[in-house]
Write a structure and sequence with these properties.
single chain, about 325 residues, alpha+beta, six-stranded antiparallel beta barrel, 12 strands, about 25% strand, elongated
């Protein structure tokens, strides 16, 4: 150790021994490094699996939110369409939501969340953003049943928007088809014609879209043509709809009410101050004259007592002649 500390004679030997011992150090450390490598591999795999599961969960949640957002977006679009259509309706309307569908495949009825407590009445028209859907046929306190246009028991008077040709559109049991009954084979109707409600029967308001003609079949041996149409309303897709509160009075009742209202208005106008008196054939006072101006007409009749006074002097000369 003294020689190694004071002289450099053993330095090359020490260097060679370091090289030899380095290999032994590497060999003895190999098991530990191998264990650390294996542990690191298994640990990284476990962490990756956990992270992968976490990312999958987050992706699933985000997809669910995205689907909900898409549903809300579509709902917003439908409500905007319904709002735009309600702005075109002159009558009072109320929005209703679909809450049920009749499971019977041979009837086309739906259940809405508005009932008698909300002012709904039997026969009330129902429409969506595209056109007429049907009418209310059953009332409950908080819900109502609506019979759709395509039900086999339903018919609606329509007219061709292009030329005013009237017809009856009946349901076929197919939610995508209506059929026009008893249309003459020579009638002016063709594919693409828009059918609107005619207002006949005082049940549906006039002018609402009902269907679009998509097929016209002429048979020379038959008196009537076969006319089929597609409803404009999305009968099997609409979730929100409008209840139309139109005037349910008959034309005669509306005319009577209008006449009564006009008479009352004329009576109020005649009794208002500052209005001219009506003509009576004996002179009409000037406009704006006070009501007391008619008083001078009373003295035109002389009193009874003064009228008899002149008779006494007339008899006096006759008496004088007799004397």
């Amino acid at each position: 150790m003294v020689v190694d500390a004071r002289f450099d004679v053993l330095k090359p030997v020490r260097s060679q021994m370091g090289l030899v011992l380095m290999e032994s150090y590497w060999i003895t450390d190999l098991p530990q490094r191998a264990w650390q490598g294996v542990a690191g591999q298994f640990g990284s795999r476990t962490e990756l699996i956990a992270e992968n599961e976490k990312l999958k969960t987050e992706a699933l949640l985000l997809q669910g939110r995205l689907q909900k957002l898409a549903a809300l977006t579509e709902q917003n679009v439908r409500l905007r369409e319904l709002l735009n259509s309600s702005a075109l309706v002159n009558e009072k309307v109320e929005v209703a939501e679909l809450i049920g569908v009749d499971p019977n495949p041979f009837t086309h009825r739906i259940l809405i969340n508005k009932g008698e407590r909300d002012g709904v009445f039997l026969g009330q028209p129902v429409l969506d953003a595209r056109g007429l859907m049907g009418q209310v046929v059953e009332l409950m306190p908080y819900t109502s049943r609506v019979l759709l246009l395509t039900d086999t028991t339903h018919s609606i008077p329509v007219q061709v928007n292009r030329n005013g040709l009237r017809a009856i559109a009946s349901g076929t049991g197919n939610p995508e088809r209506l059929e026009l009954r008893h249309v003459a084979d020579t009638a002016d109707i063709k594919e693409g014609d828009l059918l609107v409600s005619s207002g006949m029967g005082q049940r549906f308001p006039a002018g609402y879209p009902v269907a679009t003609v998509n097929e016209v079949i002429h048979d020379s041996g038959q008196p009537f043509a076969i006319v089929r149409a597609i409803p404009t309303a999305a009968l099997n897709r609409s979730r929100y709809m409008l209840l139309v509160f139109s005037d349910r009075r008959s034309p005669e009742q509306r005319a009577t009410d209008a006449a009564i209202a006009q008479e009352e208005a004329d009576r109020k106008g005649a009794s208002a101050p500052g209005q001219p008196a009506p003509a009576n054939g004996q002179g009409v006072p000037a406009a704006g004259a006070p009501a007391t101006s008619a008083a001078p007409a009373t003295p035109t009749v002389p009193p009874a007592a003064p009228a008899a006074a002149p008779a006494t002097p007339a008899a006096a000369p006759a008496h004088t002649r007799r004397q």
